[in-house]
Each structure stands twice: as C-alpha cells, then as structure tokens.
Design a protein that fits this description.
By secondary structure, this protein is an alpha+beta fold. Helices cover about 40% and strands about 20% of the residues. The longest helix has about 35 residues. It is elongated, with a radius of gyration of 27 Å.
Amino acid sequence: MLDLNYIREHTDEVREGLRKLHLDAPIDEILETDARRRQLLQEVESLRARRNAVSKEIGKMRDEAGRQALIAEMRQVGDQIDALEKELRQVDARLEQLLLEVPNMPHPSVPEGRDESENIVVRQEGTFRQFDFEPLPHWELGTTLDIIDFERAVKISGTRFYVLKGAGARLHRALVAWMIDLHVQKHGYTEVLAPYLVRRECLLGTGQLPKFAENLYFDAEDDLWLIPTAEVSVTNLFRDEILPAEALPINLVSYSACFRREKMSAGRDVRGIKRVHQFDKVEMVKIVAPETSEEELFKLIDNAEDVCRGLGIPHRVVQMCTGDLSFTASVKYDIEMWAPGSQEWLEVSSCSLFGDFQARRANIRYRPAAGKKPRYVHTLNGSGLALPRVMIAVMENYQQADGSIVIPEVLRPYMGGQEVIR
C-alpha cells in the first residue's frame, strides 16, 4: 500500500509510475475521497468544539428558558455529529478499499519496458552440457522411468496435476531437504513451517487480495484461503507487530505446498509439470530495516543462485522491466535454469524487494531506538527454489543416452546414496 500522503503530495510521480507499469489505478477517486474525508473531519471537530463550549455555558446559566433552548440546539448538533461520523466511516472504508487497488511504484533502477520481451538478462552462469544424443523433455523421461504419472493424476484431480512415484518422489523430497539445509546452514536462515490455510487479512497484507482473488483457492464457509506461496503465511507472522531494532534483519526459510488456479495461463505450458495448480516451494523471506533493503535484495539473489550452482545447472539472472513487475514489487529479478530437453529457460525463483508496501498493508513496524517513533520495515522474498521446475532442470540436464538420470552429487546423501535413476 502506498502512503496516502505520498499520493496526495506526489500525484504526478504516482501517475508517471503507473504509466511506466502500464497499469491503471483510481488516483482521482482517491484524491476526491480523501478531500471529502478531511472535510468531514473538519466539520465533526468544529461541531464537537461548539458542543463542548456550549455545554460549559449551559452549566453556568440561570435563565431556564435560555438553558433549555441551548440544550435543544445541542441535541441537533449531536444528531449532526452522528450523521457526519456515519458518513466518515463509509468514506474511510471506501478510501481503504481504493488504496488497496494501487500497485507499488517501480524503483528508479528498474528499466522501463512494456512486457517480458523487454526484460534484461543481467548475467549467465554455468556451462551448457554438450549432448551426443537428442535430449528428451521431462515428460517423456518421467513416464519411461515410471517416476511421474500424469494419467492417474488427471483421474483423481483433473488437468494440471501430476503424481510423483518411487525415485521421483524421493528426488523431490531430497531437493527440498537439501535446499532447506543449504539456506539454514550456509546462509543463516531460520526454518519455519507455517499453515497452508490463512485468513483473508493475510492475503491483503502481502498483496494477493483483492487483485488476484480469481487465482486463489478458498474455503467460503470459514473464509480461509490456501496460500499461493509461503510468503503469505511467513510475512504475516509479524502482522500488527512493532519489532525491536535489534531483531532485524529477520531471515526465514519455509517449505510449503502452493496452490494457484492458473486462470491467467490458460492454454500455456499444458505438457509436463511446469505450470500446475499445486506445487511445492522453498521460500526465503526477509524483514529488514529500510536502509539495508537494497543490499539484502542482492544477498537474496545470491542465496537463490547458490542452489543452481550447487546442482551444477546453467542459470541466468533476469531483471524485470516496469511492464513485467508484479503488483507488489518495486524491484524484481528472476532466476532461470536451462532445461535442454524442453529447450527453454525455466523461472525457478523471483526475488523481490517490496519496500514498505507490504509492511503498510500488514502493519509491520520496528522501533529504531528506545523512545523513537515506530517505522515501517521493508520486506523481501524469493524462492529458494521452486519445485517442480527444479525437478525438470535436474532430470533434463542429468539424463543419459539410455534414458536414465544421474543424481547430482549434493543430493545423493538425501537419496540414501543412490547415484542413478534407472
């Protein structure tokens, strides 16, 4: 959420930010509603001041007729105050709703562009494997090795679901365990395991609601929502809290299942396990002081890249242009792994800096020093990494001519010493 004062005092900058993002937001209505709110507040305060002054005067009056006339007048003033306060509550609610529709503003470092075609490849690491045979896509490898079952997944859940079996399920579990251990033991994160079902206010806090409601699964009876990412539950651990300065930075890593309806991707990536309604992910979340947030973003990116390096898979870092930023991010970098069988780069992590955008929505603050006024924290998150696309990259990069898959060395201790899936 943008600061209302910022919108009011830097309206032209906000409009320019929206132009760069190629998005619309109800800025005019926000300004009109804000003006009406301030007018109502002024009227209410004026009437209250009048009532307080007259009340003191009534207590000193000896003229009973005059006293009763003022009492009657004050009853009317009270009715006016009640009516204005009712309207003020409605205006406040509308203003809050309108502010939730305004996206975050792009950081000055973000390149301007219309869509993903204008994103910028910042760097590329790793050596492409030279195959002496035609590499297969993961959906053929997985079916032949009997480690992925698409047909039975469709039978029990429909399209965009899959079942992992045997060594496939174990490889998936090994990846999750190794990634968690890497971030905890090498990068200094604290592991948390949070609920997959959250309250509506949590999704409002991290920015998925109200804009992306159609892409979320929820239980209408209890108004509980399945998380699209652990970012939601982990960030909201600190909702409505004031943290001590010495608690920052907070670095958390969490494994979770993620649930997305993928309505906006209808017809895309229908083969294999690249784009599905349910998938698993290891998520990194940072809660930091504002002056350190840009430095923390590049640490986050490096932590995610470390997973690619450990697996020995070529990857690249791509900076999102303004037209491809998310609703909530002020800066975003994607990390993509190369999949030789599918012949494409797969996004396995999006590392984002939100500034105080989420913190304002979730009311997460910290106190810089004793006696100082609380300030909003800055939040960041990034996948570290997302399954099943890492599975795809591992399967396709480590496939052999006979259809087997060599298990990366870092995963073998988590696979009971197994070296090859045959």
